[in-house]
Design brief:
The protein is α/β, with parallel strands linked by helices. It is 34% helix and 24% strand. Strand 9, helix 5 and strand 10 form a beta-alpha-beta unit. The chain binds adenosine-5'-diphosphate and 1,6-di-O-phosphono-beta-D-fructofuranose. This is 1-phosphofructokinase.
Length: 325
């Protein structure tokens, strides 16, 4: 079972333009779509589509349309009532695939709701192969909450994966190795944020990304899936003998429609490969195939396994380029 936590869920509104976005101009919108999203929610949605059991833990009222839509989609939920509305995130998708995301801070979360979310996770963790802590933290959550949760949930016997950004990511890295999750999934901007390296260089050069990701393995993380946008992803993994392997995978040919949900889909692809006991290169190929399939779908649409082509992904081993961190 894959257990997910989305502490800051979002209604994802996507505005698709039939022309390039020009700041200050008036645009006629081609289509608008609205989907229930947020990182853990998207991973649970991918799990359901792939026939993998999953439970999504999140703060939201049981009668919120957000929760009703997820339940109708077949996603098993533990929704902790908040009395507040789910935030709205807006994406502007341009015809060339350029995706501009405007993510809201979210509604203030109380200590009581945080405690209930923790209790739900602890209740379910022993039955979870993986527990995924994902996305931003809403106002009111302690910035080091993921670090604290990682330590508590590891003690329950689940593997822990974290995908976050900004201050919660920095707090998690600062808390290493004490509360190290088993897996982290930074993108190039996130790798840059805690290494001080240049994001564009990390995205363009898999060896540099592998070198940056290596800092996390040196501090107790077992696996790093560093996604590099259109340049695929790098996987670093500590083997049973303690040695670290590193691989890069290039995406299959992709016509990009909206990259929202691509990172979440790639993390799910890795977890699916792990649950199927595939070797590391094949887990990486599945991750990149899932991410690229999502990038080719509108809005936050999460791919069905039929849409995912790991057979078209090219993987190779990479050497580390040690950067400063
Ligand atoms: N332009 C693109 N072309 C093909 N695949 C893409 C593109 N952008 C993203 N992807 C796929 O989605 C995955 C995650 O993308 P990335 O932008 O790194 O993640 P995040 O959404 O977390 O920022 C990539 O590893 C790749 O497989
Ligand atoms: O919690 P954050 O960092 O604001 O991110 C939430 C947003 O990210 C998403 O989970 C998509 O993430 P990815 O594009 O990284 O896969 C959206 O569904 C949601 O709007």
């Amino acid at each position: 079972m894959i257990l997910t936590l989305t502490p800051n869920p979002s209604v994802d509104e996507t505005i698709a333009l039939s022309e390039h976005l020009e700041r200050g101009a008036v645009h006629r919108v081609a289509t608008t779509t609205s989907q229930s999203g947020g990182k853990g929610v998207n991973i649970s949605r991918a799990s359901v589509a792939a026939g993998e059991p999953s439970v999504a833990v999140l703060p939201a009222d049981a009668d919120d349309p957000f929760v009703l839509e997820l339940a109708a989609s077949g996603i098993e939920l533990r929704a902790v009532p908040t009395g507040g509305a789910v935030r709205v995130n807006v994406t502007i998708a341009e015809p060339d695939g350029t995706t501009t995301k405007l993510n809201s801070p979210g509604t203030e979360i109380s200590a009581a709701v945080l405690d209930r979310l923790t209790a739900e996770l602890e209740d379910l963790a022993a039955g979870a192969d993986w527990t995924v802590l994902a996305g931003s933290l809403p106002p009111g959550a302690p910035v080091d909450w993921y670090a604290a949760l990682s330590a508590r949930l590891r003690a329950r016997g689940t593997r822990v994966a974290v995908d976050t950004s900004d201050a919660p990511l920095k707090a998690l890295v600062a808390a290493l190795p004490g509360s190290a999750p088993h897996l982290m999934k930074p993108n190039a901007d996130e790798l840059a944020s805690f290494t001080g390296l240049d994001a564009a260089t990390l995205e363009a050069e898999p060896e540099a990304a592998a070198g940056a990701a290596r800092h996390l393995l040196d501090r107790g993380v077992d696996t790093v899936l560093a996604t590099l946008g259109g340049n695929g992803a790098v996987l670093l993994e500590r083997g049973p003998d303690g040695t670290v392997g590193a691989w890069h995978a290039s995406p299959p040919p992709t016509t990009v429609v909206s990259t929202v949900g691509a990172g979440d889909s790639s993390l799910f692809g890795y977890l699916l490969g792990h649950r199927r006991s595939l070797p590391p290169q094949e887990r990486l190929a599945l991750a990149v195939a899932y991410g690229s399939a999502a990038a080719g779908l509108p809005g936050t649409t999460i791919p069905h396994p039929d849409q995912v082509r790991p057979d078209l992904v090219i993987t190779r081993t990479v050497q580390f380029t040690r950067g400063d961190a």
